[in-house]
Design a protein that fits this description.
Blueprint: H1 2-50, H2 52-55, E1 60-61, E2 64-65, E3 68-72, E4 84-88, H3 97-116, E5 126-137, E6 144-154, H4 155-161, H5 174-178, E7 195-202, E8 207-213, E9 224-225, E10 228-231, H6 234-237, H7 246-258, E11 265-275, E12 280-289, H8 294-302, E13 311-318, H9 321-328, H10 341-353, H11 355-369
Parallel strand pairs: 4-6, 7-12
Antiparallel strand pairs: 1-2, 3-11, 5-6, 7-10, 8-9, 8-13, 11-12
Helix pairs in contact: 3-4, 9-10, 9-11, 10-11
Length: 370
């Protein structure tokens, strides 16, 4: 028995040394793997920035072309609330002198309209301008992280900055003077006075909610759009001095535009998207209603919606890849989409049905057009 015990002791000691050695090697490998990932990540981000003309293209589906650039997110992976880091910088956005005069024109015109009562004046609400957006990955599990830096601004500044192709005294325009087509992610904050939440809402009986914007809204009037489109508000979304919460702002938009309460759905952030033509940033969300069917949602909306005036039509589309793709490409729709909506619906489809099946269905829909 003692010989056997001695043998077991020797084997145990040897195994202990082996396991200790393997564990130490594993720790070293893990450490160097983290370092390689971090270094590679920084190299890849820098490389893409230098070569954006080749690396970046906007969302398209056959003949449907948009100005929506998918900056981060492919639909399959959700960006968790804790992975979105927002910093609000001090100091409001300042327009260049010649563009500040355009803002003065807007302010004077709205003051005149308010005095005459010929139409409802545009409210100069407090907004955010986008200083920068950075997308990265965590070192160990490569989960998405978004770093968003914002500055205070207002709606009149936004309207002045939307005149990207208006001539300046020297004959240039804000677009030609301040924007480089080869570097779409780089722009001064005063040209990026918009960050919105776009939500694709799907009912419990698998219907996608599609809205048509009212003719009374200032931006993209009459165009077909996401289920919910809501801009970040400094007044509403940033109580006290807190930075806004994108998930909370999206839920607010769902309540104001569709009368949906936060507990009635699951909400997932699928991507960050930029309209490179108008310099509008957006967080693209997917929302699945837990119990409400399309018929029940329609009945609820018939009893009142806080911001009913923003939409002139609501339609319900079966949330299947083939059905949505055909709907996007309909002759009476294809040229009447708000720029960010088609990419939103594509991401939502991929999130639910998977990339392979969605791309097959979209390809079939495009072939049918031929």
């Amino acid at each position: 028995m003692s010989g056997i015990d001695l043998g077991n002791g020797v084997v145990g000691a040897v195994l202990g040394v082996v396991f200790a050695t393997l564990f130490q090697q594993w720790l070293q490998d893990a450490w160097f793997k983290v370092r390689r990932r971090s270094a590679g990540m920084m190299r890849s981000i820098t490389f893409r920035d230098r070569n954006e003309p080749r690396a970046w293209s906007t969302f398209s589906l056959g003949p449907l072309r948009t100005s929506a650039l998918l900056v981060d997110g492919d639909g399959e992976t959700v960006i968790a609330p804790e992975s979105v880091h927002i910093q609000v910088l001090d100091g409001e956005v300042e327009l260049p002198a010649e563009m500040a005069a355009w803002r003065g024109e807007i302010e004077a015109e709205e003051g005149r309209v308010r005095a005459t009562g010929e139409r409802a004046p545009v409210w100069n609400g407090p907004r955010y301008a986008v200083e920068s957006v950075e997308a990265s990955r965590t070192a160990l599990d490569e989960q998405a992280e978004i770093h968003l830096r914002l500055r205070p601004t207002d709606y009149y500044t936004f309207l002045a900055a939307q005149q990207l192709d208006r001539r300046l005294p020297d004959g240039s325009t804000p677009r030609t003077r301040h924007l480089d087509p080869g570097r779409p992610l780089v722009a001064p904050a005063f040209l990026q006075c918009s960050f919105a939440l776009n939500v694709a809402v799907v009912t419990s009986d698998h219907l996608l909610v599609v809205s048509r914007r009212s003719d009374r809204v200032r931006m993209a009037p009459g165009l077909w759009n996401s289920s919910v489109n809501e801009g970040l508000s400094r007044h509403i979304d940033s109580a006290g001095r807190n930075a806004p919460d994108l998930y909370a702002a999206a839920r607010r938009g769902m309540r104001e535009e569709l009368s949906l309460e936060p507990h009635e759905c699951t909400l997932s952030l699928l991507g960050i998207v930029l309209d490179v033509d108008k310099r509008h940033w957006s967080a693209h969300f997917y929302a699945r209603l837990n119990d409400l069917t399309g018929e029940q949602l329609q009945a609820r909306m018939s009893r009142g919606v806080p911001d009913r005036w923003e939409h002139q039509t609501i339609e319900y589309v079966p949330f299947r890849a083939a059905e949505v793709a055909r709907y996007l490409l309909r002759p009476d729709r294809i040229h009447h989409w708000a720029p960010l909506a088609p990419a939103l619906f594509h991401l939502a489809l991929v999130h639910v049905h998977g990339r392979a099946s969605v791309e097959r269905a979209e390809a079939q829909a495009v072939r049918r057009l031929g």
